[in-house]
Amino acid sequence: MKNFKNKVIAVTGAASGIGRALVEGLLAGGARVAASDVDDANLQRLREFGVAADLLLSKVDVSDQAAMQRWVVEIKGHFGAVDGVINNAGVALSCHAADQPRAQMEWLFNINYWGVINGVEAFLPELLRRPEACIVNISSLFGLMSVPSQSAYNAAKFAVRGYSESLRQDLRNTSVSVVTVHPGGIQTNIANNGRHLHSITGKAEDREKTAALFNSIAATSPEQAAKKIMRGMQKSKARVLIGSDAWLLDKIQRLFPACYDRLLVPVMNIGTRMALKRV
Ligand SMILES: NC(=O)c1ccc[n+]([C@@H]2O[C@H](COP(=O)([O-])OP(=O)(O)OC[C@H]3O[C@@H](n4cnc5c(N)ncnc54)[C@H](O)[C@@H]3O)[C@@H](O)[C@H]2O)c1
């Protein structure tokens, strides 16, 4: 996708964070945007960007397969076609694997994994009709390496990466490119809205501080993340890493794939203790 002028791009989880910044960036780049989210109140605030004719707002839950299929029909009815989908909606869950209630894990998987699959399956038939089209799936740095208390999030984001890299190969001889995105810490609401059953430090008294701790170490703005994703779409990049933290930690897990945790966990613990003093 060389440029965004008059392209129709669908963005899930558009009411906040990276999704919201993508909507702003895409509209500024000349795209027409179909934005969806479960949070209708914040979704309506996208009208602040002031280009109503180019913006379609829909309340859609990505974990609802039928709703995602209906959304594509709505977009086609409104704009006539669709050229790209950014499967961005996601949630956070912190819990030790040994004590993790299955229902919590399923909640996260239904959004972070099945939400992406629902998006691909709903949009792909329409995208294949376009001369150039793009699927963007948002994984995470935690789709490249694992950390304590994130087993469900890690598993879902690794699964998004595995699925997307295979999908890219399946679509190699078509007009549809597939971009997998691995953000490091981005300053969004994901931790504030997440479910934190255990703390990352293993200490009960730190549980309430999980979101504040995450927020204190997230270094990249959603706007910077959106710019990087849009550049990745324009260059049809297979993988987009966002932030110097993602860049560095990706290198470390490549050098020490079987023991990066022994190296990183003590460093993370020092960083976490320092950050906890600040929050
Ligand atoms: N913030 C980070 O540091 C970070 C790092 C790596 C990956 N990510 C990923 O980036 C994506 C965007 O997250 P963000 O950081 O902007 O978070 P955010 O919480 O600011 O935004 C996520 C949006 O998804 C929406 N959402 C939640 N459940 C939904 C559902 N079932 N259907 C539709 N929408 C739903 C929320 O209402 C929210 O508006 C997620 O996939 C997240 O896992 C974020």
Automatic annotation (TrEMBL):
The keyword Oxidoreductase applies. Gene3D superfamilies: NAD(P)-binding Rossmann-like Domain. Residues 7-187 form the Ketoreductase domain. It is an enzyme of class 1 (oxidoreductase). It comes from the Bacteria. PROSITE patterns: ADH_SHORT. Transmembrane segments: none annotated. GO terms for molecular function: oxidoreductase activity. Its EC number is 1.-.-.-. Keywords: Oxidoreductase. SMART domains: PKS_KR (SM00822). Belongs to the short-chain dehydrogenases/reductases (SDR) family. This is SDR family NAD(P)-dependent oxidoreductase.
